[in-house]
Design brief:
heterodimer, A: alpha+beta, Immunoglobulin-like, C8orf32 fold, 2 domains, six-stranded antiparallel β-sheet, 5 helices, B: alpha+beta, Dna Ligase, domain 1, eight-stranded mixed β-sheet, six-stranded mixed β-sheet, 15 helices, 22 strands, globular
Chain lengths: 264, 438
Amino acid sequence: MKNLHFAYLMTIGFDAPVTKHSYSLKCCPLTNERQKVENLTVTVNGKEVRTTDTDVYGNILISGAIPEAHTSFEVIASGEVQTGLDICESYDSEIARSYIYKHFTAMTFPGEKLTDVFKKSDIKIIETPYDRALYLFRLTSGLIKYQKGVTDISTTAEQALSGGHGVCQDYAHIMLALCRMAGLPCRYVVGMMLGEGESHAWTEVLCRGVWYGFDPTNNKLVDDNYIKISCGRDYHDCTVNKGVFYGFANQHQSINVSVIERNE
Amino acid sequence: MEKLCSKTAKINELLSRYGVKFGIYKNGVFKEQLFPFDAIPRIIQKDEFDYLERGLKQRVNALNAFLGDIYGKKQIVADGVIPEEFIFSSSGFLPQCDGVKPPKGIFSHISGIDLVQSKDNQWYILEDNLRVPSGASYPMIARELCRRSSPETFAHTPIYDNRDYADLLKEVMDHVNTGGINVIVTPGRYNAAFFEHSYFAEKTGAVLTTGSDLVVENDNLYYVDYNGRKQRVGAVYRRISDEYLDPMTFNEESVIGVPHIFSAYKKGNVALLNAPGNGIADDKGIYYFVPKMIRYYLGEEPILNNAPTYLPYYEEDMKFVLANFDKLVIKDVAEAGGYGVVFGSSLTKEKKAEFIEMLKAEPRRFIAQEIIDFYDLDIIDDDGNKVQRKADLRAFVLTDGTTKVWRSGLTRFTRNPDSFIVNSSQGGGFKDTWILSR
């Protein structure tokens, strides 16, 4: 168990004023069996925002709009999280929901490469769902090399595997694709890690009726160094910021995450 | 009738003057074309219509029950009636809608059900359209103009008046309205069915608007008029597809939608007609299962039949399809508007082998149907001769507290004698549909 303090900062700079800016944010960690969130505050351009809204995946959703002209959009979420309260997350919603996580999405649809990897693997001789998830997690870790700038947000699991390089998002998508080929319901997770300067992504798999977290990028099981923000079928369900605005402007986004341990 | 037919040219001229057109995009260029009207009506006898009415109500009730189940408990999947991949890997299933209950629990308020009649006078359901079915305005205005050109035809024939469609539509909007005005949202002037959007607004008293005049504040939807005055909106008959409805929830690139409208809907603060997510029920793959749905949800035998359909997904059906390939029409489940339809017999040997490879690789993507020998209807061709052409019928079924079938419908025909495809986007024409009242 750890007491972590986090600050998530996202800034978008516009090179010309924009108006009627509608946004929706998924940037707030949620309290569950694994983690307890306290003193959460979120500000948008300096103003505190609150919400009781959640999306279909159970993520906290903050919606709003800035009608007047502005040249920057700054979101700060901060708070304290007790992590590692449990090793898994229970599956509270009705079983019906697991169907959504069982089937391929455009990002996780397997092509030749993934099919080939799956066929050549030892998955068939492994019996329990948890062991199968664990096996696919270890397998995924070694499939590609970590390298920034090779892939982007539109890169599918199949493309990342073919390219041989990628970032946390690609590792997570490849593991999702493999788990779905094995018939395991699984989901994409966006979160933060102790000591990282950016947000992170990993995979959760439903086995024994609960969700277990696997981080194929670091070849680590998800433990008390991880704070979960949101989850969904793939990257696109977890987009931290979605926005539309009026104006002719180029935008530049930067994200800065800090997670530190509190020793009392 | 002779008199009415002699007025065909005049009526078409009036239709064109009223802007009854159909826009299509071809190679990126927007072109508007007239939707040619043929004055010889399709006539449906009272008894026959009573039968159709019962069958259509039953079908739409089952489809609405299915939508409530799929975005709720998913019992039909748990009970193994429909394989789960047909639902959850279909692009028609929108996970964003999972668990969201629309006002009064109605998903498909306006359903356009396409039927054909075979030579032996059997009716078959060809497809269900539960998203934004268009076309009711065409027989409405054509009737209006026909009555004007030849009033005596209508004075002496017992035909149900079809100009009540606007009242039915208004009742449906009022029934689910959560407090506020009714609006019709159009993507704009360059949409294929813009005439229809404006005509319905005029006839139902709803406000015609584009997404840019609507705003969401505190999870309520408002219409902002020219003076900047805000009016709460209670029901939206939206003529834009789910994908473009709300850039915050669906396609982020959409500029014709309303940001956060889905949140307002999710909270029960506004009704959307039809409900988002209906695409899962009118998927061509799901079509196969509609008779099973009728038995499952209503405990009744289907009154109206599907065209005989095979699902290559099932091994047995795949065998049949391969053995009878030349006798079947194969449809890509993801395509609409008469695209992605292949007649087995029309393919060259090479193309056929290629197609069968594709079919084997992705069986889930296709359905195969027996070709129905259509009962042809008389039309008057460009040279003034009476000839026979293939036609279908789109029936409009409206659901508020009860389910009603509009006593008319859009009869579309192909102008090309060799074609089976009647879609207006493929250059067909239309007829009025008369339902006799005795």
